[in-house]
Amino acid sequence: MDRRRFLVTCGAATLAAACVRIPYVTGRVDGGKLLIARSEFAEKAGVLVEHAGFTFPLYVRHVQGDEFTAVLTRCTHRGCTVEPEDDGLVCPCHGSEFAFDGALRKGPAEQPLTRFAVMADAETVAIALGGPA
Ligand code: FES
């Protein structure tokens, strides 16, 4: 039996109301970095990662090659959890929209999502926990 957890979002932003299943994955902390197995991205471009240091999960997305982005899923408007959809992250509370790299696309939020630097090699994706990218 598959015991993986998923966040399922059925965004209003998609005309067909298609649902997106985003897996939660477990990382391990090592030397100020949160490490995720690169194989977690074999089937999905983006995953949610929970970490005891954050109230909200991180959304980590594979862009191309060794390029990844990581953002905190806390909306910068009033603190709701933004949800990954097909083309970005959307806040269900008041409709702010963000690109996968956290850039603000549409308010009422006025600031981008908190971003983290990400380094990757063939085996591991490492998110710097020390601060925003
Ligand atoms: S809390 Fe996200 S748009 Fe208001």
What does this structure look like?
This protein is an all-beta fold and 133 residues long. It has one domain (6-132): Rieske [2Fe-2S] iron-sulphur domain (Rieske Iron-sulfur Protein, 3-layer Sandwich). It has strands at residues 6-10, 19-26, 28-30, 33-37, 46-50, 58-64, 67-72, 83-85, 88-90, 97-98, 104-106, 115-120, 124-132. The protein is globular and about 40 Å long. The structure holds FE2/S2 (inorganic) cluster. Residues 75, 77-80, 91, 93-96, 108-109 line the site of FE2/S2 (inorganic) cluster.
Summarize the SSE layout with pairings.
Elements: E1 6-10, E2 19-26, E3 28-30, E4 33-37, E5 46-50, E6 58-64, E7 67-72, E8 83-85, E9 88-90, E10 97-98, E11 104-106, E12 115-120, E13 124-132
Parallel strand pairs: 2-5
Antiparallel strand pairs: 1-2, 3-4, 4-13, 5-6, 6-7, 7-12, 8-9, 9-10, 10-11, 12-13
FE2/S2 (inorganic) cluster is lined by residues 75, 77-80, 91, 93-96, 108-109.
